[in-house]
Amino acid sequence: MKTKKYIVDTTLRDGEQGPGFAMTKEQKVCIANLLDEIGVYQIEAGIPAIGEYEIDTINEIYNNKKNAKISVWSRLNEDDIKLASKCKIDILHISVPISYPQIYSKLNKNKAWILKEINKCIELAKSYNVEITIGFEDASRADITFMLTVAEKLKQMGINRIRFADTVGVLNPSKCSRAIEDLIKYAGVEIEMHAHNDLGMAVANSISAAKSDAKYIDTTILGIGERAGNCNFSQLIYASDRIFDWGISYLECLEVEKIFSSTIKYYS
Amino acid sequence: MIKIIDRTLSCLDDYELDNDKMIRLLDLLIEAGADYIELSQKAYKCLVKLNEKGKYILRINFPDEINEYKEFNSFVCRRSDIDSSPAIAKEIQINDVREVNNISMHSNLKKIRINGLDDILNYNYEAAFKQLISKFKGKIELCPENKYFSATAISTEWILSGGTDIVTSFYGINGFAPFEEVMLALRIIKRYKPSLSFSMFPEIKSIIESITLKKTENKKAVIGKDIFAVEAGIHVNGISKEPKIYEPFSPDLVGNKRSIVLGKHSGKKSVILKLIELNIDYSNINICDLLLKIKQMSIEKNRSIFDDEFKMLLSS
């Protein structure tokens, strides 16, 4: 019997972040409806911190939803979380820089600061009464011991799902498997895999993650996204539907791609 | 020891071959780090003279053909058997992981080329690879097919499992593991650096496009034209501090350039960097207002905005 897995579609967030795309509210609502209709579990609708137009769009997506959970992406700061509270959502995703390049070079902070900010942000997010998921940004280059420490603390704070993000696309399947197995085994959290395609391995890493009991896999339509893009939705389904029950057929994915390509233009 | 066998030049038989282009392509693939270049007979006839720095494998249709090509030491052929020359790698197809067991049927051969295994990552691939290595004592050239978008990953995991020889084609022509992806993956994961730079990739890409008349996707991993264009404010900010924060490898390494694109996801830093890039004095510009206008224009136009549109916004 095939194991049930869940798609988290991030076309409207990480996909749109790829240069060349700027979707209107109407286009995003249309795409969200399509994904909802074919049975995508969760739609990451956008980033409230972009502005009012984005918040309106997210709310419109939520108003039109049927079954899919609607989520937004937020940085690890209270301003972003307050903006997220203006949105009608099911899930608030908070992205936590977890690798040393992210913590030290990007933010000029340290691990203690990260832990403190996580506490503050989660306490604030909890006051909005939505499900919270946490993303480990650049997890593929992070120290596993630190990730396990943070994962255990998150579990104690009632966070059940962690997004394992291969932010710069440098993972390979066996390394991906080991990290995810450790997080599940030692921290007892559910894992959502977020792969990038810089080395052409996003689909393979996502399959590997799913085989290692990651329950949720992030994808984008046509694999759009930063640099070489994200895990391609239809390719993932095609490559793995003999072993996983996605609840979505390859033909349905192709239909979504066709409509997406005719609705949204890519400019390079 | 890792060996990369590139079969790009044996994948172009359906096209019109130009001698100059083929010679240049051959030179560049060798420079890029291909240990062996596989040639079809058509490609060999077109090339006439081979680069002395290269090592070559000739694709033949029948084992007896090696007598016509005494200048080659290595061949690959589907039809060889135990009585054929040890210089020939017998090419076999394995499409199902359960067939891996059958490798012992070929245990008397000196070398073998395994095509297929495209969905092996769905199964216990590490065990399958160990089985192949333990049951076949000769040389295995693994040539994974890319039907399930995993050929690069299969190639990488083969090497990590103790395999040595991988067969690729540039851009994954004819459905094999893309040479450029395998080279970068092995560089990053195994620190395998047969070449200090891959700045020749754009030229290789261009030659192949001119032969096949097919354009490479703009976002293709490693060689896509647009993979180093960056718009998101968070990413621009990170890259401006330290490119490694958001880039797996430098654009220079693969003969590309980073570019800042303005649009819906831009932040103030992106705007400032663009102004600096365009040599515009921004001391009297309200960056926040300008950023709002950029986002508005981007949404209206349904895309990122071009530099001349940005300049128009400045003057308005």
CATH level 1 class label of the largest domain in chain B: Alpha Beta
What is the N-to-C order of secondary-structure elements of chain A (H for helix, E for strand)?
Answer: EEHHEHEHEHHEHEHEHEHEH
Strand order of the largest sheet of chain A: 2-3-4-5-6-7-8-9
Strand content of chain A: 15-25%
In the CATH scheme, what's the topology name of the largest domain in chain B? TIM Barrel
Number of domains of chain A: 1
What is the architecture of the largest domain in chain B at the second tier of CATH?
Answer: Alpha-Beta Barrel
Largest sheet report of chain A: 8 strands, parallel, barrel
What characterizes the major β-sheet of chain B? 8 strands, parallel, barrel
Tell me, briefly, the overall form of chain A.
globular
Low-confidence stretches of chain A: none
Question: How would you characterize this protein structure?
Answer:
The complex is a heterodimer of chains A (268) and B (316). Chain A is of the alpha/beta class. Chain A has a single domain (3-263), classed as TIM Barrel. Chain A has eleven helices and ten strands. Chain A has helices spanning 11-17, 25-38, 52-64, 78-84, 100-106, 111-126, 144-156, 173-187, 202-211, 233-240, 250-263, and strands spanning 3-4, 6-9, 42-46, 69-75, 91-97, 131-137, 161-165, 190-194, 216-219, 244-245. Chain A has an eight-stranded parallel beta barrel with strand order 2-3-4-5-6-7-8-9, surrounded by nine helices. In chain A, strands 1-10 form a two-stranded parallel sheet. Chain A is globular and about 50 Å long. The N and C termini of chain A lie far apart (44 Å). Chain B has helices at residues 19-31, 41-47, 125-135, 151-160, 179-190, 201-212, 233-241, 268-277, 287-301, 307-315, and strands spanning 3-6, 36-39, 56-59, 74-77, 88-94, 111-116, 139-144, 165-169, 177-178, 229-230, 259-260. Chain B has two domains: 3-212, TIM Barrel; 229-315, no CATH class. Chain B is of the alpha/beta class. In chain B, helix 4 (151-160) packs parallel to helix 5 (179-190). Helices cover 34% and strands 15% of the residues of chain B. The mean pLDDT of chain B is 95. Chain B has ten helices and eleven strands. The longest helix of chain B has 15 residues, at 287-301. At the A-B interface, helix 5, helix 8, helix 9 and helix 10 of A face helix 4, helix 5, strand 10, helix 7 and helix 9 of B.
